[in-house]
What we know:
Elements (H helix, E strand, L loop, with lengths): L1 E6 L6 H12 L3 E3 H10 L3 H12 L5 H12 L7 E5 L5 H13 L6 E6 L2 H9 L8 H15 L1 H8 L3 E5 L4 H12 L1
Parallel strand pairs: 1-3, 1-4, 2-3, 4-5
Helix pairs in contact: 1-9, 2-3
The chain binds adenosine monophosphate.
Amino acid sequence: MTRLIFLGPPGAGKGTQAKNLADGLNIPHISTGDILRQAMKDQTSLGIKAQSFVDKGELVPDQLVQDLVEERLAKPDAQSGWILDGFPRTVSQATFLEELLNQLNQGGERVVNLEVPDEIVVSRLLGRGRKDDTEDVIRRRLEVYRSSTAPLISYYSDRHKLLSVNGNQSLEDVTKVLLLSIN
Ligand code: AMP
């Protein structure tokens, strides 16, 4: 049973790797960013509530993303494993997730930290062309990552769940290392 959490700065290649790995393992790739972008496109109440935060590069309030993850992990296809991409992003989301996984009897999760130097991250993000990839918003997303999300590295390392992978190599090489290290 594979349950993986992908950590790493925006632009580290989390989304691509998480998706490839999930497809290969035939388990759902659960990206809170993708779910929020779809909700904004569909103008659902979640999307409307999230929009201003996402547009500015700020984190959406914990409660909103926690509710969506709780709902998603209860679905039938998540019972055979999953890859979480972009959640948790704060220590309080991580403690929420720990409790939720206990309740759902879905323990044993491991955390992949994709390590990529700052200058690489910025140039990758500028080349991506997403709506929230303008220079100011990118800068803000990196600040938010450093202050709110990076503390999760020691949080999971303290719990012996962390696996660090060098994300500054070709897509194929990162995939190879990932496959070797999760087995
Ligand atoms: P991502 O696609 O993971 O880069 O997420 C895009 C945006 O969605 C982020 O900049 C946040 O505004 C929002 N978002 C995604 N996941 C979370 C989360 N776990 N907590 C708060 N906001 C989130």
